[in-house]
Design a protein that fits this description.
This protein is of the alpha/beta class. The chain has helices at 16-32, 77-91, 97-104, 113-120, 124-129, 144-160, 176-188; strands at 47-48, 59-65, 69-74, 165-170, 195-196, 199-200. It has one domain (47-200). The protein has 7 helices and 6 strands; from the N terminus they run αβββαααααβαββ. The strands form 2 sheets. Strands 3-2-4-5 form a 4-stranded mixed sheet. The chain starts with 15 loop residues before the first helix and ends in a 6-residue tail after the last strand.
Amino acid sequence: MPRVKVARKSTSIDMTAMCDVAFLLLTFFILTAKPKVEDPTKAEVPFSSKEKLVPEDNLAMITVGGGGKLFFSVTGSDIRTETLKAMGEKYKVDFTPEEQARFAVTEVFGVPMANLKAFLDMDAEQKKTYQQPGIQADTTGNNELSNWILTARKADRALHDKDLDIAIKGDRKEQYPVINTVIDVLGKQKIFKFSLITDLRPAPKK
């Protein structure tokens, strides 16, 4: 008997819909991705074998690096704006709407109030090369760090009715007294629960 020939069919597939989905996903990831923030402290945090993620929002972080310099950051542009306004009133510094907008997108800084306006007027390239002197934390006198923390906590409570989570990020090469100063600042505000930022490494085998 003669063989039955099977009719060949075209294997071409219309990829238009697949390309549309791919571009939609790519656009979504680009728009939702957070840009990497330039860390002015260059702090090398210590290692730990315990893993507990710190929250990505509702967080205030004090960073110690660069030879004992103190830096402050708080999540949320609205909290940063209200915190700056309150600090300006406290220290009699008038920040313009443009300076407030720049501070709202400044995720970490380490300059005293006397230099903050000049810092906010810098462009992106100038900020990269500028050596920030750190926030003052004199426990016997002018303690700007304490005021930043307290003001940010009040702003978060007023805007979101929440309590800020607090974290300390310290360079592993820093001396203990500097870290202890930060802990004293938190203790005077009755903050006895906070996170310490570390790098994860495997626990040693027994």
